[in-house]
Amino acid sequence: MDDARPPASPDPSRPGRLSAADAAALLAEGDRLLAAGDHLEAAVRYGRALESLLARPEATILVVVHEIPVRYALNAAEGSDDPDSPHHSIVNATPYLFGEERLIAAAGRLSTSVRGR
After folding, report:
1. Domain presence at residue 14
2. CA–CA dist 25, 41 (Å, integer)
3. What is the rounded CA–CA span in Å between residue 49 and residue 47?
4. 46 in helix, strand or coil?
5. Sign (positive or negative) of CA dihedral 14, 48, 20, 53
6. 3-state DSSP call for residue 63?
7. pLDDT mean over 24-31
8. In this predicted model, what pLDDT tens digit does every residue of 66-103 receive, in sequence order?
9. How far apart are CA 18 and CA 15, in angstroms?
10. Is residue 1 part of a domain?
């Protein structure tokens, strides 16, 4: 991978490698933030979780999540600054495939550019 960014950490302000348990905790925290109405901070946390996936050595990873992280990643991967559009209806129990380039784009847009809004 040519990406020079450090791997993610549970705290979006601190770089460092995430364990699988830390990544799950980060996703759970994103869900909690969504429930509290803090959608932009949830998007940042989802982006950091995606960065942790990029730091893993496996060539293929299966991630099972609810539709909001999928929607946010899909929109960010396609260049949207709004994680909630243009795609809003995500089909349940449907695979959404992200190659490395799309995952890098989604992680970067969610974890950094959304924070500046």
Report:
1. no
2. 15
3. 5
4. helix
5. negative
6. coil
7. 78
8. 888 999 999 999 999 888 889 988 888 889 999 999 99
9. 9
10. no
At residue 2, does pLDDT exceed 80? no
Q: Could you tell me the two tokens for 1?
A: 């991978």
- Residue 4 maps to a domain: no
**Structural domain of 25:** 20-113
65 part of a folded domain: yes
CB neighbours of 78 closer than 8 A, spacing ≥ 6? 86, 87
Report the number of distinct structural domains present in the chain.
1
4 is written with which tokens? Answer: 């020079």
Mapping DSSP to helix (H, G, I), strand (E, B) and coil, where does residue 111 land? helix
The backbone torsions φ and ψ at residue 78, rounded to the nearest 5 degrees and listed phi first, read -90, 5
Compute the distance between CA of residue 81 and CA of residue 79 in angstroms, rounded to an integer: 6
